[in-house]
């Protein structure tokens, strides 16, 4: 119970029903080895995944009105993937609070990304069931990066998306990518692409694919604009 108290202090949420938190932090290995009939966090993880997706989708929809559906989907996927949830969980030392069976403990389960990510979602569900959607939303939002688009660009190396979002703030501006050179044999070609802002060259990139060359050109343009990850 002391660990549950400590975790509530860490996340800044006080449970009316602490049993929900106990379940959220109970890995299946712990539940299976326990003499008591404890439930694992698997069902809560299922619900937490949906709550997380709704909150993040709503945030992106309301705050990034110029981004098309495909980019919104990719952005959401970056923010709710296992890698991101594991990273979020690490910031609150979630792994140290998860209850594991002896075998999983010895196998290093506290540092296993899938276990930490699943527990992170289970905690979201526990908060949702205990305090409602707004409580869950408040908890989730503390983990989203201040620069959401920057985080997505870093995850995907998608500098084109960031550049487009910056440029779209000025409707009269237009970004265009132009292939200006090709070299090398067919099996190992290099492509050089320039990114133009209206008629001005603002970046150039060379790579073995046109898409990669465009990303490098966009990254160069962002650097010249003073944008930082």
Assign the CATH architecture of the largest domain.
Orthogonal Bundle
Strand line-up in the sheet with most strands:
1-2-3
Total of domains: 2
How many helices does DSSP assign?
12
The H-level CATH homologous superfamily of the largest domain, spelled out, is Ribonuclease III domain
Low-confidence sequence ranges: none
Sheet/helix structural class: mainly alpha
What's the CATH class label of the largest domain?
Answer: Mainly Alpha
Binned, the helix content reads 55-70%
What is the general shape?
A: elongated
Q: Please state the average pLDDT score.
A: 90
**Radius of gyration of CA atoms, rounded to a whole number:** 23 Å
Q: Looking at the chains present, what oligomeric state does this protein adopt?
A: single chain
Fraction of residues in β-strands: 5-15%
Number of strands: 3
Span of the ends, CA to CA: 41 Å
CATH topology of the largest domain: Ribonuclease iii, N-terminal Endonuclease Domain, Chain A
What is the string of helix and strand elements? HHHHHHHHHHHEEEH
State the major sheet.
Answer: 3 strands, antiparallel
Quick description:
By secondary structure, the chain is mostly helical. Helix content is 59%, strand content 11%.
């Amino acid at each position: 119970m002391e660990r549950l108290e400590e975790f509530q202090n860490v996340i800044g949420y006080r449970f009316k029903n602490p049993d929900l938190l106990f379940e959220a932090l109970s890995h299946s290995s712990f539940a299976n080895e326990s003499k008591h009939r404890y439930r694992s966090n698997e069902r809560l993880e299922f619900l937490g995944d949906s709550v997380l997706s709704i909150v993040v989708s709503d945030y992106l929809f309301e705050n990034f009105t110029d981004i098309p559906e495909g980019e919104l989907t990719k952005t959401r996927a970056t923010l709710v993937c296992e890698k991101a949830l594991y990273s979020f969980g690490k910031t609150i030392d979630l792994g140290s609070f998860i209850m594991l069976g002896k075998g999983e403990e010895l196998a290093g389960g506290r540092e296993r990304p899938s276990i930490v990510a699943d527990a992170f979602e289970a905690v979201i569900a526990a908060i949702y069931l205990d305090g409602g959607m707004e409580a869950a939303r408040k908890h989730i939002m503390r983990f989203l990066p201040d620069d959401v688009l920057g985080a997505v660009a870093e995850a995907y190396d998608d500098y084109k998306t960031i550049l487009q979002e910056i440029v779209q703030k000025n409707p009269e501006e237009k970004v265009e990518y132009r292939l200006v050179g090709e070299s090398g044999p067919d099996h190992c070609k290099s492509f050089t692409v320039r990114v133009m802002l209206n008629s001005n060259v603002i970046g150039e990139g060379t790579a073995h694919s046109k898409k990669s060359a465009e990303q490098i050109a966009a990254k160069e343009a962002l650097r010249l604009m003073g944008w930082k990850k």
